[in-house]
Amino acid sequence: MNGNLLEIRDLWVEVEGREVLKGISLSIPQGETHIIFGRNGSGKTSLLMTIMGFPTYRIKHGQIIFKGEDITHLPTHERAKRGIGIMFQRPPTIKGVKVKEILKLVSKENGAKIEELSRAFQFEQFLGRELNKGFSGGELKKSELLQLLVQDPDLILLDEPESGVDLENIHLIGQMIKKLLQKDVHRKRTKSGLIITHTGFILQYVTADLGYVIMNGEIYCKGNPLEIFEGIQKFGYEGCQQCLKRCEF
Amino acid sequence: MLEKKLDPKAFRSAKESQTPKDLSDLSSEERERLRLLGLDERIPHEGEYVQVDAKPVLCKRQVEGLEIMPITQAMKTFDRIGDYMWKAVSPTKDEFTKATAEDLDDGYFIRVLPGYKLVYPVQTCLYIRSDNVAQKVHNIVIVEEGAQLNLVTSCSVHPHIGSALHIGISEFYVKRKGKLTFTMVHMWGEKTAVRPRTGIIVEEGGTYISTYVSLFPVKSIQSAPVCRLLGPEAKASFVSIIANHKDSHIDLGGEVHLEADDTRTEIISRNVVYGGTNIARGKIIAKAPKVKGHLECQGLMLSDDGLMMAIPELDSHYSDVELTHEAAVGKIAREEVEYLMARGLTEDEATSLIVKGFLSVKIEGLSPELQRQIDKTLELAKLGF
């Protein structure tokens, strides 16, 4: 491994015959968090789903390297076992399966302390509930993040982590993400993150090392996340389009 | 793939079988099978009845207020047997009731005296041990006024026998403010045909809760219990949890007659179809005003080789009623499988967890012990592809 936990090389992806990613390349070094800004439909979620290996996302060309291993064609559960975890934006309800049951299954190899983590993030009363059934926006996010805390992946993919969360919960969700990404560790941090966001407001709660703008399945811009965010706030994604400063990597 | 007509006369009489003296005569494999279904000395029971082929081999009573005996004995000793026998099920209903009326292979008689509320379950087991036998039993259960009974039946067949037929006539009477919880956790064989014929009569304020669990392969089951709620505020609920395996034919119904004001019922079925034919029928008939009934049938198809039919029926003779039904048949959502795979579960593990969750119906009024027993059976059945 050359210091990069994840490397994506010239990735072209199709969904039902439609190109959704067109030559994406990026690298995330160990311990860094990167953030991708983009409109709805720009290809952000497709990128996360492709990294996770969902079969709907067909890789036509390119490579995904994780911890130095080519995982381009590995099934999803093998990627999870190697240390990739994802927070879904809209997780499905799994009827009849309790939150505690899934946490136990996820933690079976690492013995994570389910009770302790649920108490720390005020989720104890949900352990006996059916997974994601009737959860509010904030509760869904907490459920996702608690599963990730128990799973303890090395690369955390976060799909719109702040969407649909009320003010009461956003702070706690920020805390959970910080814990996942080891933001309290300042030297030799081992966890890396890739956040995708439409609004960018998550930056008020979690810091990122590098930002990108994705449009129409291509990365158009790369740089300081806060500067990119400010630019988007000021000029919108139209500004990015006019800038048309397509990054060459 | 509907089953060919079944003739009870094509089987040997269960009376011709050589039966064991008691349970210790069964092989360790057989005892283990029955233990898995709940016939376990470590589980507290108020009473037990075990019948092998045509012969009762165990009949035990642990508490006051409970009468438990073979039906053939009750026919001699219980004066009012005539008020109950063939009163909730007609002996001429079909060839199976006729065959049992003509040639009875015993069965159980259970009565809980007025006001006695039994804490632990009464366990019964009707076991077929011999090859090509028809076991024709008749069971009568009477829960007297204000009494309560948790009855669990664990029916099964010898793990290595060929074809067999089980006919079970059951007549249940729940008197005023009585409560009967009847839970069936069955493990039949791939060549066993099962024909229960059940009638239930519930009086004012009485409650009947029926749960049927069949998760292992069976040749065929065809059953449609008829429940009459005769007194005001009587309640009945039927839950069936079925795994329909390849080459199995399972046709399960439930018919509830709401015959008095403020009676209520719920019929719920969850079916996972790996193959074969699965028919889930439910019928609610409102014969009085101010009644409520709900039918719910959900099927999960795991294969294109099977057939699943949901047949809900609601009949009303009055306007002031609330009858509803919902039925849904579909496949496992790909999205759910992928979600669980992203947490590290293999595709098979994810599918099996989703199926188990789908079948995990929270049964209102069921004791935690029984719920645990059902959950354990779900684990044992290893439901997946």
Largest sheet data of chain B? 11 strands, mixed
CATH topology of chain A: Rossmann fold
The shape of chain B is globular
Uncertain parts of chain B: none
Helix fraction of chain B? 10-25%
Note the run of SSEs of chain B as H and E. Answer: EHEEEHHEEEEEEEEEEEEEEEEEEEHHH
User: Which class of secondary structure composition applies to the elements of chain A?
Assistant: alpha/beta
User: Could you say which structural class the secondary elements and strand pairing of chain B correspond to?
Assistant: alpha/beta
Taking all Cα atoms into account, the compactness measure Rg of chain B is 20 Å
Strand count of chain A: 12
Strand content bin of chain A: 25-35%
Pair with the most extensive interface?
A: A-B, 25 and 23 residues
Approximate shape of chain A:
globular
Largest sheet of chain A: 6 strands, mixed
Radius of gyration of chain A: 18 Å
- Please identify, by name, the CATH architecture of chain A: 3-Layer(aba) Sandwich
Gap between N and C termini of chain B: 21 Å
- N-end to C-end Cα span of chain A: 19 Å
| Tally of contiguous helical segments of chain A | 7
Number of domains of chain A: 1
Kindly describe this structure.
The complex is a heterodimer of chains A (249) and B (385). Chain A has helices spanning 44-52, 76-82, 99-106, 114-120, 137-151, 167-180, 225-243, and strands at residues 4-15, 18-29, 33-37, 58-66, 69-70, 84-87, 94-98, 130-131, 155-159, 192-197, 210-215, 218-223. Chain A has 249 residues and is of the alpha/beta class. In chain A, the strands form 3 sheets. Chain A has a 6-stranded mixed sheet, with helices on both faces. Chain A has a 4-stranded antiparallel sheet with strand order 2-1-4-5, with helices on one face. In chain A, strands 7-8 form a two-stranded antiparallel sheet. In chain A, helix 6 (167-180) links the parallel strand 9 and strand 10 (192-197). The mean pLDDT of chain A is 91. With 385 residues, chain B is of the alpha/beta class. The mean pLDDT of chain B is 92. The A-B interface holds A 52, 54-55, 75-77, 80-81, 85-86, 88, 91-92, 94-97, 101-102, 105-106, 109, 130, 147, 151 and B 333, 335-336, 338-347, 349-350, 353-354, 356-361.
